[in-house]
Amino acid sequence: MTDQIAQNSQEVRPSPLSTAAIRAVILDDNAVDRRRIQRLCREADIEISFTEVSTIAEFASKIDQAVYDLFFLDYRLVQGDGLIALEMLKRHPNQKRAASIMVAGEGQIQVAIDAMKAGCRDFLIKDMMGPDMMSRAVLGALSRSAAAPEEPQEPSALQVALARFAIGSGAEMRTILSSMLRHTRGLRHKAVSPDPILPEDLDRLEANSTRLWEFLEEFQSYLAGFNSEKRRLH
Description:
alpha/beta; 5 strands; 60% helix; disordered C terminus; CheY-like_superfamily; phosphoprotein; Sig_transdc_resp-reg_receiver
């Protein structure tokens, strides 16, 4: 009996949503940015086993060697870009269930739109990355990937409309909010004013912008859940 229990326990594989099970690859040619992603995941209490690569060639080699749960893809590389890596993942038989997060700089809104259209589960703007946003992006991307069907299905008109907002307007709004938050924080550090109300106004502006960002994150999660429930009912 004991031997049978031990054998069964060895056969049970952890869920991809269990943070202890997350195996991730960071594709970025900047070592500082690779370390920053790992640090933010630690600060968010997400346990991830990381593999680092800096080129498309290294990336291709790694995805041939093992199955991963999550990929952080930096868009701007010395040779190639993150969209090339994303296409490689989609075509690779071992990585079709993996979640991917595109990491882009401010102002690269078209990159985010193209990445989401191409199958990325989420994206991060470098200037906005923090522990909370990292946590939402990682867990949200893994959840959406787990809920996705094995084979693509024809979307309904409502799903198309929602997706257009989430990919287009939603992504653009997040980029605008990223810029607003950065400038607000800059004003707080630079502004010298006798008006005691100014710091409170800046606090409120930052808090409201953050809440709006969180709403957009929740809306994207809702869209993924809506798609999953519709598939279950049909």
